[in-house]
């Protein structure tokens, strides 16, 4: 088995074995606490620019199938780190191994390292750039490369994952039928949208049109949608300047709902600020309280940034709060039909506790 190295920007070195393609890759190293859903995680555009560490000990034991994709074309994560990659998956839907899937998409990964020690490092020191290599095994050489790489906050990652043209989406959730109630039109800004958001919208009763991230607000208004959804996506929200500007021009003219990066863009468009979490929220087990009903839902999360609600100076009210660290997870405007959540109500992977938000959106439009 070929040797591979993981070197963090702080100089920490992990020695393991090559997984996936031969080569090297650089990205911000984060950890995800989900026990399953590795295929959805790898294809989630929000992980562009990041190398994902799976904290669960064995990954790949049910293989890769043709349905559990959260984006088209290719894997979006920069790399993958696991303790053990199962070489013999067992599931009736499985088409190939995790290793074969990574190789087919030319994604560099590493297995056989102490992921618990790595996770503790990231938790204590914070998310940071790292490099995985199976071609250069000199730790000092790799450290120089990773320290010379731009920080994720300096990269325009949304432009790498957004759609090139607008399209209609009609596919419902897997093995379900959409509702037969009257369709309501919605335009989705694709900042790196997950397919499960679109599937949930169809099931809730929406006629869905997806548009590129740089679509002018005036062009969206000409479509006469009943609402606009700002999707999830990768990177620092402050780099998505065109999305912030277009959202600012939509405010007050059409109802707006945001998810994850879309939530952050709304906060910035309203004149607020965002801040970066120490190591982010990535996983499928985060308890979130809906402050209106005082109901606790277990949520799927994938973000490194949060909206500073106080910076919005009373324009919005807090609607959801993370019960792990108390961070803000949702807001709504006090006057206008604008609301958003920081987490992922569509799951994919994760629990379905929060899909009620799609029903709530339909009822509000």
Describe the protein's architecture and organization.
With 365 residues, the protein is of the alpha/beta class. It has helices at 38-42, 98-104, 115-125, 139-148, 158-161, 195-204, 217-222, 241-250, 261-269, 356-364; strands at residues 3-8, 13-20, 24-32, 50-54, 58-59, 79-82, 84-85, 108-111, 128-133, 167-169, 184-190, 206-212, 227-230, 256-259, 273-290, 295-308, 316-322, 328-333, 338-341. It folds into two domains: 3-149, Carbamoyl-phosphate synthase small subunit, N-terminal domain (Glucose Oxidase, domain 1), CATH 3.50.30.20; 158-364, Rossmann fold, CATH 3.40.50.880. 22% of the residues lie in helices and 33% in strands. The strands form three sheets. A ten-stranded mixed beta sheet has the order 10-12-11-13-14-19-18-17-15-16, sandwiched between helices. Helix 8 packs across helix 9 (261-269). The chain starts with a strand and ends with a helix. The mean pLDDT is 97.
